Structure formats: structure tokens, C-alpha cells
Give the backbone structure.
Amino acid sequence: MFYGIGYTGLPNPSGANLELLEDGTALLYTGCADIGQGSDTVLAQIVSEELGLNFNKVLVVSADTGRTPNSGPTSASRQTFISGNAALNAAKSIRAILNEKASALLEVNVGDLIFKEEKIYVKIDPDKHISLLEVIKACNQDGILTFSTGWFNPDTTSIDIETGEGKPYATYAYATQYAEVEVDTDTGEVKVNKLIAAHDVGKAINVQLVESQVEGGCIMGLGYALMEELILEKGIIANPNFKNYIIPTAHDIPSIISVNIVEDLEKSGPFGAKGVGEPALIPTTPAVINAISNALGIRFYDCPVTPEKIINALHNCLD
Amino acid sequence: MSFGKYYTPLSVEEAIDILNEYEGKARVVAGGTDLFIEDTANTKIDAMVDISMIKELRFISKEDRLIRIGALSTHTDIADSDTIKNECHFLSKAASAVGSVQIRNVGTVGGNIVNAQPAADTALALLALNPCITIVSEKGKRNMLMSDSYRLNGGSLIDPTREILLDIAFKSMDHHFENGAFMRLGKRKAMVLPVLNSSAYMRLNKDKSSIEDVRIVMAPCSRIPLRLRNTENYLINGGHSEDIFIEASKLAMDDANPRNSCFRGSSSYRKHLVGVMVFRILNQVLNNIVNEVLPFNGTN
């Protein structure tokens, strides 16, 4: 499948404020809400990578309407791409300030410097370097604040109402998932033995977070395929609780969930990254249902594919 | 639910005295995993009599051929007990299937029986063993068959405002000729109410050619755990070929006769599952006897 990152054909910018303090700590203010997907970590990684800081030196203040700028909602699989770019742009501005001061101090051209491990090195002569702290101090002595803002909005257009043409997304995430299932043709129970997921995320800023995201999405997609069902009786929800609205437990997940990360760098993304929030879960449901169809030779067009639906379909086939 | 005083008696006598004092307005509680989540916003109980500290009610023993389980034994106690695993492994399997780890650690077999949910796993497995239960009240002790403790239209004959279930006792099995099985079908593999639960017991004759006795219990398909008597009668004194088991599973579908349920499925689907489950459980028990299967190994 392929899936657009960000709002569809609408602007959805994100802003970030970044302050590099004289002790080498970076304070990142972002409106981006980390709802468990790990954006605090990823944004800190982006800033630390760009400025050559130790990851632990980047403190993230996030999702505080009293202190942080607007970064848009954590939805539409957009935050790594859009808030990541905002944070990166802020970091790039500060890097430019430091670059200019360091090149003067080291007497080299601005383009000859790399930022790594809290030092600024001359590319062709690594023994020639200066510490980040020294450069910050030198800036401060000249009355220059190592402070900046950054913001980013994806390059999109609205969709033409008549022709449907336009550029709704700046980038797309691609994925393929594979499911192996066993169907008990007497009870209708489905056992998912194996799930293999391959996701093009542009660049995995944090490999472990991407893998966890995909694993979690796979489990949710499996539940959507086989278990999740809102039961209505005369318009009233009969199962408004988790006792009777069924989602997977640890015992229900396959022993093998294999996540394979593909990195086809996205030019407009921070370090090439795109997004993976929704893509993690979308392919799983059709993969599982297609696997059931493959096993039984019967197609199913609505989910959940419950044991009862399977038994009914099998009985109908025999008739 | 609201209640007044909360007592924690240390002996059965003390508990019975408190219950009598309140003349039916107090209630016995042990683990509380069923009671405290009851949807009874308007219920007011004058006093709770928490018997969970009465140590002598929490035991599992085997003496000669009699196995006794104290009513305060938790599902975990039963699931983990070497005695149970060796003597009647399917009871350990059933107790392992109750709710969640936390519920199993706190919920008791006594509560499981008195709360009388038809598909209660541990109670269902016990019924296949046809146990005798001992109940005490101010009038003294009385014994009855566990199967007789269920009211026809649901619930238990044991009165939790006056009586305390003490223990459950059943004969141990001779694994050369006798064994049992427990099976569970649910919408997921853990922490779910059952779509269908079944337990079975079988005794073969000395040369293992025919079935001397069989008990098949199934739920939920009525207000109480259901013994499939017609199916049992068909099987007794007959052989145990595949054809016989197929015929038995067909009889079971009429014996059980489940209704339409928005959570468990349509009547026709549930009936189909009854047939499948009876066929499978009979085969599993037979297999357990023929192979003299003993401890619960996680799947049998």
C-alpha cells in the first residue's frame, strides 16, 4: 500500500523554538504531542544530530500551550516529517550561527566544518577543531544569542473540485505486509502464525521506535481483521466496554512478527524520514483477510472475519 | 453497591455467628472478584463477612482415594497444585483458564460455585468429577452433590447470607480406565468470557472396549451448567468408535439447544459448535485414557 503523509491537500505547518545554552544544553520547544509514539525522542535525536550534541543534552519541552509553538496535531502520520523538519530547520539556523563564528576562529571557510561529538572539526584536518562550548561562549561575548525558530509546511496543493487533480501530499510511505494463517474449519477460529512487514520509512531516525510502531500496528490490524466489532441493538451499542469489545491479548499475537525497514530517502524529509504511524496498521487487516481467503477459497468483504462468518461461508459453499 | 460494616472473622464459627446476627442482611465474601463488580448500584448490604482469613478452608488434599479442595482455594492454587495436576489434570487446565492472572490469584473455587455462572470454568470442570460439597450454617453441616446445588432457573441453592461452602470432595480416578478433559472456545485466547465451555469424564470397562460411564457438561447454553444426559445415555455401554462419537455429537446438538446471543453468536452457529466440541472432547478424554495421560502439560 502507499499512504500520504500529512493533511490531505491542506496546509498543516509545525513550528519549533530552539535555544542552545552556554553549558551546551539545547532546549527544544515544540507543540508536538508525544502520545507514546516517541516524538520527544525523535525530535531530540534530530536536533542532536544536526548540532553534533550528545543526545542527552537535548531537553524537549512539548505540547504545552503555555510555552510551545503550534505544531499541529499528532495525527495523519505527520509529526516526524513535519515537526521533525521544524526542529531541523531551527537547528540548522543555530548551526549557521555557530558555523560562522567557528570558521572565523579556526580561519577556514564556512563550508569546511563538521559538527560531531560536541566539537566542530575541520573536515580535511580533524586535528584542527574547537569545542562547541567555546564557540557558544565566543558568540555570547559578541552579543549573539544561539537561539532560533524553525517551521515547516509540506509542499501540497488543494484538490481541484471537478478534476480531482492536485498534489495532496508531499510524500508517501510505502509498505507491504504478509500474513500466514491457519483456519480451523470446524470452529471457524483463525490463528495468525506469522506476520512479515516491510515498510519504507524514508529514514528510520530511531530503528527501535519504528519496529515497535509497526509491531503495535500489526497487532491492532490483526484485531481489526478478526475481533473488533461494534455490536448494535436497535441503534444502541451493546458492547461499550472492553469486556465485550474484543481486542488482542498477548496470547493472540503471532510468535513471529518480522519488521523490515526499507530506507528510500525522502528529499524533503528530516534526514530523509517520512512517517509510519498509520501505515503500520493499514496493510495488516487486508493481509490477514486475504490469507483467510487464500486458505478457504472464499472471499470476505467485511471485517471482523469472525468464526461465525467463516462457518456460515463454509456451509453456504457446501450447499 | 454500598455496605456498612466489614468483618474479617478468623473461624467458621465466628463467621456463622455474624451472619446470624444480621439475619440475612449480611453477605459472605472471599476474593470478591465476582461480587465487587456486580452491577447493583442500588444494592445496600448491611455487612460484608470476609472469610478469606479462615486458613483451614484453604487446602488441597488427597487421602486414600478421596481428593478434597477447601472452598477458599484460589484458581491459581488449583491450577498449580501437583495433586490436581497428577490426579485430574483437566481441572488444573480449567482453573488456568479463568479470567486473568490477577483474578486467578484472588478468586476462590467456593465463590466460583456459589456465584453459579453457568460457564464458570473451574466449577464446570469439577462437575465432570461429580463432587460432593459440604455447606455449613447455624443449623450445622450438610452434604449435597455439587450438581444439585444449582437452581433450575439459574443461581445457587447455597445462600451467601446464611451459609458457607466449606469444601468440595471427589473420588480420585484410576487412570488406567478413567480420565477427563476440559475445552474452551472464546473470541480470543485469554481474558474473555467463553463462547462455549465443556468438561467431560469417561470410564472404560476393564478391557477398554466399551464406555462404562460418561459425563459431559456444557455451558453456556442454559441458565445452569448443562449435563448432556441424552448424549451420555446413548454412549453408556456402547463402544467408542468414530461413528459412535459422531452420532453422540449430533445428539448433543439437540440436547444443548443454545439460543441466539448478540455476544456468543446465533443459535445455529452455537449448535454447530456444540457438535464440534462434543466430538473433540470425547476424543480427547478417550485419548487421555488410552495413553494414560497424567499431569497437565499445557495442552492436554
